[in-house]
Design a protein that fits this description.
alpha/beta; seven-stranded mixed beta sheet; 6 helices; globular
């Protein structure tokens, strides 16, 4: 069984039979997070881009747990300067893929920006298409605008898509509905919303639209709740 727990904002905890993955850790400074950085013990940490609300706790968690950090080349170089061992980084770039102990990970394009918390360049933003146990495919879009190549990303089938709906800094509810159609995802869950007033959204209304306007099933979680596949 695979479980996907929303830890608030764009942070997700993925648990497989043998491994634990943490996506975009932003816990200690997020009032909505149900646990803090000392409460997670991942084997792998995946970072979609460099912004502080996606990387804030990556270094401290990586040093404490010995997790391997997966990110683009520039972020991995930055992580090494923060004291993460090179052997504990897996550098990638958009369009590339590699096999990892938990499955296969491909870095997809994302239309956004990427700067590290200290202002250093963060390389190209991205998303992750994961192929996990049982050939289940899970797409973490990261922070992105709507783009037509989502149809290509979904061409191999998407069992679960995690999409931003906050608007202002990413696509909002309207564009996310079109993204779901392009991806032909079986299940979807919203992310990157309600952390601050500028990205406040009614996720239950969004879910009603998903069920009415697409073929997908929508799952709206409270921070700390999970989806199982």
């Amino acid at each position: 069984m695979l479980t996907f727990t929303w830890l608030g904002h764009a942070c997700w905890l993925v648990v497989t039979d043998q491994h634990t993955l943490l996506i975009d850790p932003y816990l200690d400074d997020n009032d909505a997070a149900p646990i803090k950085s000392d409460g997670v013990n991942p084997d792998f940490i995946l970072l979609t881009h460099g912004h502080v609300d996606h990387t804030a706790d990556a270094v401290k968690i990586g040093k404490r747990t010995g997790a391997t950090l997966v990110a683009n080349y520039e972020i991995c170089e930055w992580l090494k300067k923060q004291g993460i061992a090179e052997s504990k980084t897996q550098a990638m770039n958009t369009g590339g893929a590699c096999d990892m102990p938990f499955g296969r990970v491909k870095m997809t394009i994302a239309h956004h920006s990427s700067t590290m918390p200290d202002g250093a360049p963060g390389g190209s933003p991205g998303g992750f298409l994961l192929t996990l146990a049982g050939n289940r495919k899970v797409y973490f879009a990261g922070d992105t605008a709507l783009f037509s190549d989502m149809r290509l990303i979904g061409s191999g089938g998407i069992d679960l898509a995690i999409l931003p709906i906050g608007d202002l800094y990413t696509m909002g509810p309207d564009d996310s509905i079109e993204a779901i159609r392009l991806l032909s995802a079986k299940r979807v869950a919203p992310s990157h919303y309600n952390t601050w007033p500028p990205i406040q959204q009614d996720a239950h209304h969004w879910a009603e639209r998903v069920h009415r306007e697409t073929q997908a099933s929508a799952f709206v979680l409270e921070p700390g709740e999970k989806i199982s596949l």
